Amino acid sequence: MSRWLPILVLCCAACDAPAPPGAGSELGKSPALLAAEGKPVAHGPSAEGQPAIYDEHADNEAALARALEQARREHKRVLITFGGNWCGWCHALHGLFEAPGPVRDRLGDSYVQLRVDSRTGKALAARLGAPMPSVPFLTVLDAEGKPLVHQETGVLEQGQGHDPAKVRAFLDRYRAPG
Length: 178
Description:
The chain is of the alpha+beta class. The protein has helices spanning 5-14, 31-36, 60-74, 88-98, 102-110, 122-128, 164-174; strands at residues 41-42, 77-83, 111-117, 137-141, 147-152, 157-158, 161-162. The protein has 7 helices and 7 strands.
């Protein structure tokens, strides 16, 4: 493992994410499998071979307008995830969001999700006041588009992955009343 640590550090630096402290047996499992087992989602050192989850050519303002319209209709909040297809940490969080379980349930019940490429979404992030010091980075908006919270995701981690309980608690804290 020690000969791979410099590569992990470089990959994570490219993602603007802190390097994982080490590698455990969970690293070989998919994020969806780990989340389904109720375990923190392990971060891969890169997103190589992963499908694109961020539209790098999207009209972010138009996508946000559609998300806000849906949030008003459904009495939900909008959860924006700023990230990149090149970022393993972003794919890991997306895997947790998509895995069957309490995180996905809360997202479906309370949020309209919007994934914004961090490189092409800088103007949107600036307009919303989202500092985006690293990715993935979360912003929750009310149905009128008012930012309620900007959250770096390091505090939602435990060990080498996103902690499903911490992510669920975050989502519970900012969900729409009712």
